[in-house]
Amino acid sequence: MLRSVKQFGIVFGLLAGFSMAAPAWAHAFPVKSSPQVGATEASAPKQVRIWFDADLNALFSKITVESGAGQVVNTGGSQVPASNPRLLETNLKPLAPGQYWVQWSVVARDGHHTEGKFPFNVK
């Protein structure tokens, strides 16, 4: 009888553990960017590009680039090229020397949202 109770306890514990295990989430996180995070560029970039570790939903993913004074300096919207669903990019106005902030917000194809912000400088 005691052996049956122990076996029941072990099986119950394993089932409870499996049922409470966290599901695998597939958020999209940046793996690299151009310009790089915190970089000082000798000449103004014409584009900001961020590569992610998961495919993006183009409809809900965007980049906004602001000057140190808070003015938006990207032109138009953001694009996820059909040839690379893990790349998000936007074009920039001609930039003066100074610090700029890149704010990104993406939704992975599985619906999970991530966002972040990083600076770069132009000499």
TrEMBL record:
Its main location: other. It is found in: Cell envelope; Periplasm. GO terms for molecular function: copper ion binding. Residues 27-122 form the CopC domain. GO terms for biological process: copper ion transport; response to copper ion. It comes from the Bacteria. InterPro entries: CopC/D (IPR032694), CopC_dom (IPR007348), Cu-Rt/internalin_Ig-like (IPR014755), Ig_E-set (IPR014756). One of its GO terms (cellular component) is cell envelope. Residues 1-28 form the signal peptide. Keywords: Copper, Metal-binding, Periplasm, Signal. Pfam families: CopC. Belongs to the CopC family. Involved in copper resistance. PANTHER family: INNER MEMBRANE PROTEIN YEBZ. This is Copper resistance protein C. It comes from Acidihalobacter yilgarnensis.
